[in-house]
Automatic annotation (TrEMBL):
Cross-referenced Pfam families: ESCRT-II (PF05871)
SUPFAM superfamilies: Winged helix' DNA-binding domain
Keyword Transport set for record: yes
Protein name per Swiss-Prot or TrEMBL: Vacuolar protein-sorting-associated protein 25
InterPro entries reported for this sequence: ESCRT-II_cplx_Vps25-sub, ESCRT-II_cplx_Vps25-sub_N, WH-like_DNA-bd_sf, WH_DNA-bd_sf
Transmembrane regions listed in the UniProt entry: none
Bias (Low complexity): 180-191
Higher taxonomy: Eukaryota, Fungi, Dikarya, Ascomycota, Saccharomycotina
Family to which this protein belongs: Belongs to the VPS25 family.
Organism this protein belongs to: Lodderomyces elongisporus (strain ATCC 11503 / CBS 2605 / JCM 1781 / NBRC 1676 / NRRL YB-4239) (Yeast)
GO molecular function: protein homodimerization activity; structural molecule activity
Amino acid sequence: MDTAQPITLSSLSTFEFPRIHTFPPLYTKQPNQTIQQQQLESWTNIILSYCEFYKITSLTSEGQPRHSQLFSKAQFNLFPLLFENKSINRHVNADFKTTILTHLIHTKKAEYINLKRPELGIFIYWRSVVDWGNILYDYISNTGQKGTVMTLYELTKGGAGGGEIGASTEEDGLGEDNDNYNYTDYNNNNNNDDDDENLLPSELKNMDELLLIKVIQEYLVKQGKAQVLLNEYNQIGGVKIV
């Protein structure tokens, strides 16, 4: 059983922004298209580095952290501000922030969590869907678990839990078209061992289940490397890597 203590902000160094984060014009949308493109690329690099540092895999539509593999939502307010620099009294306004996030999407560094409900936020791809999928596939292959039915809980927390483990509501934006997943942990009698050799790698620990579903359905299933098992409510009951 993994009994490691939660990581705290005090146990990690604070993210060090690049020098351009102190450059006042960075925070105002530039009218010249060439300069604005350079500005957007600077913001892209800052956001990806910041999110990778804190293992943030999704942002809200306002550009705030939505999910981190290392920290709880209660700790997000302790992160240094991403779109504001109080030392120079500058911040990115809502309109420019939307432009920046849209640029991330257009350059495939981000994607709407639910295209029908963009207000729910975006996935941030400092690691690509393909790379996530390969990490998951290698973990299952290397631990001899191919062909075993795993729950979403087991693939993000390790071991077999019980009961509801982070139910998805309409806030998650998975409403119609078989997208309303409740993320219920279904007990799997075949996976009750907590052997060290089967412990989740850090890359998968506390992974956002919405992102996990995207990785499985849009990469592993399409590659013929995974099968999704649905329950009678058309919700994901298990995943089998093959």
